Amino acid sequence: MHLLDNVIWNALNTSQRHLGVGSGAARKFHRDVNLLGGFSAPSDEAYASLAELLDEGERVGLFLEADPEPPAHWKIVASLPLLQMLHDNCAPPAVEEPMMFHQLGEDDVPEMLALTKLTKPGPFASRTREMGDYFGTRKDGALVAMAGERLRLPGFTEISAVCTHPQHLSHGYARRLITLLLSRVRERGERAFLHVREDNVRAIALYERLGFRKRLSLKYALLSR
After folding, report:
1. For residues 77, 82, 108 and 55, what is the CA-based torsion angle, rounded to 10 degrees?
2. Alpha carbon 118 to chain centroid, angstroms
3. What ranges do the domains of the chain cover?
4. Cα atoms in the 13 Å half-sphere on the side-chain side of 158
5. Helices 201-209 and 173-187 meet at what angle, rounded to 10?
6. Less Cβ crowding at N or C end of the chain, within 10 Å?
7. pTM passes above 0.90
8. Could you state, in chain order, the average pLDDT of each consecutive group of 10 residues for the chain (225 residues)?
């Protein structure tokens, strides 16, 4: 099995083990890092192990091969089709206007949370930025676009949280931020990948222009105990 076939589980057992909790059949990220979790394979035992890591009512996001079929004491909050895309490792184009992008740190977290809450690129919490490097751009002092690294495992880095404030679209921020991240991932000798909703046609078209290719169809399941 390829590492990316069960990417959350493999990240939690390798490069990002220090950011998660659990053992045996299930693991999850600390709740202030991310709500993602995983197991080696869906089974009653795995779901029981995952339940032990959650408080009652707490949510967890899973990447599954098929529609979720959890035991009765679980609630399916949402389930939607997801594409995993892998970069073909071609050299990205030169980064345009590199000085307009700034690496984001602890002081930027409130604005990062506000921007992701507004644009909904995927789960983002107060410590998500600890999963990798995040970059953004500002307009009149306000953070208007950002992107960064989320899941990491040997040889691979996920590009995530690609988002632009609705009032600042059509300036090419997303394309240039992704290009910057691709260059950094490639310099480390790794390959970039990402996940995108299957119905997000505009984003998929952009990713394909930047060298990403569809690799795997998944289900993103948001469950609560």
Report:
1. 30
2. 17
3. 3-82, 85-215
4. 24
5. 50
6. N
7. yes
8. 95 97 92 95 93 93 95 94 92 59 95 96 93 95 96 97 92 92 94 96 93 96 94
